[in-house]
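Pasting as-is:
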Amino acid sequence: MSTPWFVNPRLILGLVCILCLAGIGGWFSAPEQEDPSFPYRNGLIVLNASGLEAQSLAQRYVRPLERVLAQIDEIQNYSAQVKHGAASLDIELKETVYNTDEVWQRIKEGVAPIRQSNPSLSLAILDRVQDTEGIFLSVGSRGDLLQERQLAIALRDQLLTLSTVRNAQLVGDPGQQLAVAFAQQSMLQTGITPLQIAQRIAEANKIESVASVTKDRANLNLSPVAQLDSVSELKNTLIATAQGQQLPLATLADIHYRTDPQARESFWINGRQQVGVAVTLVPNRIRIAQAGEQVTQLVEHFNHTYGADAVRVELFQPKWAKKRKDALMQSLMLSLVAIAVILFVFLSASGAASVCIAVVVITLTAVAAFSAIDGVLHQMTIAGLILSLGLMVDNCIVVAERFNRHVSSGTAPLQSAIDSITELWRPLCAATVTTVAAFLPMLMAKGSVADFIASIPVMVILCIVASYAIALTLVPLLNRYFPEHKSQASCWQQQLQLKLEQGALALSQFTLQHKALTLVAAFGLCAGLMSLPQAEGEFFPKTNRNQAIVDVELPMGSHKLLTASTLNRIAEDINAHANVERTLVFSGFSGPRFYYNLAQKPDESHIGRVVLSAQANTDMSQLVEQLNTRLQRDYPEVVLRARELGQGPPLESTVVMWLSGEDYGVLRQAGEEVFAVLNADPRLDKPGKAYSGAVPQLTMVFNQQRISQFGLTERQLNDYLAWRSAGLTMTHVSFNNEPTSIVLYDPHSSHDSIDMMNTGVLTPLIDKAVPVHALADTQVLGKQAVLARRNGVPVVKLISEVAPGVDEAELLTELTPVLTDIAERHGLRLELGGEMAESGEANSALFKTLPVGALLLFIALILQFNSLRLTLLVMLSIPFAIIGAPAMLSLVQVPFGFMSVLGILALAGIVVNNAILLIDGTLLYVKSGRNTQAAIVLSVQNRVRPVIVTSVTTIVGMLPLTSASSPLWPPLAWAVIGGLLTSTILVLVVIPVLLSLLLPRRNKGLPEYKPRLGNTCTE
């Protein structure tokens, strides 16, 4: 008789070796990063239309763009910020969208006609704003900002040559212009107007090819007739005077490089402006630690070339990725060791050894499969492995015990292996299917939160499937070749098993004799656990980084210099704190997105962010609380909030609300009323108005008749004013492989309104300059600095934090009717956002697929038991676990949040097996002729050890995560531990009672307990 393939040692060991080698190779070669990546569901459209007022820009460009966006069904929300000369539209796709590239392409195609019909409009679609700029470098200490910019450009270009770098861009770019300083006094003396100079320079730099010739039947393009190739050519460009002379430009004006005076974004360290470089690594295809080493080596080589202090690494995500991975790997190793100890306590030496080896093989097999499907190793992947440890052990223990039972009855090892596999492959398959079905809802969920945790169900399912295969092949093989020796330890284990069986017998006899009392006590326990108060805390946990951010918002319309000055003073005060090592200041924008969920705000002159790094082991929550107290007291004129880095979606504030309508005047009036309500409530912490009021603006209306009398046009007058203010752009060159504008400006202009109105305009019709105020009527009007729109409708936005200890849901439930009444009185609509809305969306994303998971679990159990009552009885173990999770969190004072919800979902796949073991054992004894109650007692007595061992190994496996350095994991670990404890206890107590009520009674006799191990240890 041939040996069945599933017990062939060469085949099994060969496959195991291949899988282990593949797992080891996958572990060291698979892509690796700190956090999961997300589909590109967020993006920006950035507009620049110099000179246009906010209202005109919104009417001419923003509203047509909104009409395009409104036609794309995949867009969830779009909001616009429109100010003088610039606008941005923030686009958010629906959470269920995964083909994001296709949607962004449709957006680009819809926007293209607007771009083509307005060639003067600068329009950019940024569909990769979600990329994490995980490495941030500062370039400084040269003393000259333009030199530092050139260094930053050289560094950027070198970084882009690395295959691991997707993008590198300047941060706080001061810009560079080739400035032609031509004073108004020079114009009056020479009679040369700025318009003549601008026209001449533009003509001298027409770089397009003008003609082609044919020679020897070959087409030859002529080089551009006019092209500026150097600064010296620009200086030597001849300008015609009114007297017919040809003067080099250098004799009329000073020509030099300068920073762009209109650049709103700036980067500062210790009160000194610098240039930064933000590096985005390629997601999902690289190992972040190796990529970090490449960048570090490049920076070291760069510093060796340009000076030891040219570049400094300020923010470095690969360090945190390695730290987090090392911490989780330490937890995984501790879990494996702890599980091994538990196995050697409860099982025989051979059985424990075989299960321990099987767990390692299962882990490597799962890693090999995960790598084969292009999985990315990150913190969620390793957490999935830790969560799977108890499930890995479950099948292996059942097979090892069945094998030992056959051997103890005198069956040969080979036949014992065959019998064990033959008897168990069906029930273990059913148990595996039920566990997989319980984890499928987590895998099927859609949205950013589901994407964040997607690796956990994938890894768990792979481990469960691998566990099924390894338990039925490798475990019997190992037990065949691991000799079983009688020892003092094995005697002690048998005595322990005897005690467990005695306890299980006593417990089952008591509960079956006192059914009503048992059920009432179980109900009372559940009620007591559910009544425990929950610890206060946030739904999305913080990180374990010694970094924090301070977001600062000045009144809208504030000048960029005031914003930068205020931010630097705040940074100086932060630096004075004993635990703060360094601060980075980003003025006019929110800085690089160095962490995956930082909210982005580009090109806003009134906002900024301070990023601080504290000493190691600093209590960041305490530091942030101290900074908020002190800074909000010292800077009452600004909206300021210090925050720790946290998990979850980007949140501007805990409470966010929008009022929408058609009239900005009505919106501001209603906004003030809402703000008064928020400001008067002590449960809200420093509410703020994220909208602008009316700000003074100089309005100039040109007199058409006067202009025509002097032979001028509005365009010419605009050019004169540009020359006297920020500068008149004449043309663009690229002398150093970097696009540069050539700008004509008046170096003596004070830029104030009186000076601008006195700008002299030369006209061929008269001999003297005509002041601008003679050609235009001026008045100062109050106009809104920024127009906010949301989904095509004008809005005003209000934000607030919640005071410590306040329940946000309860607070908003109380305030919403009052705020809704204000909105309705003004004919407006109120919409709420913030942390509660995001947490609701997160829960909805996870729970939406629960019915599908429940249906699959129900089908699997029906196919296994062919009984509706028994199926529902197994599913009852899930509520037993759900009760224990929040109770344990309450006892250990860990807030119930997003990761706790994840733990509860995971429990559904873990706890059902215990109930299946008991019910399946009872049915086997009933089929063998036992009466109902005897079958129940024997099932509890014989299955108590695998139930307890499985639960204990899972609990012990989760214990290292309860003290993890990251606050992400304790809520998950404690939820699983609490749910397992209550589920295990209630399954052993309540399930037998309910089984006795559901199964048909044959007789009432109970077997008398007879110790089975009495002479084992004396042999």
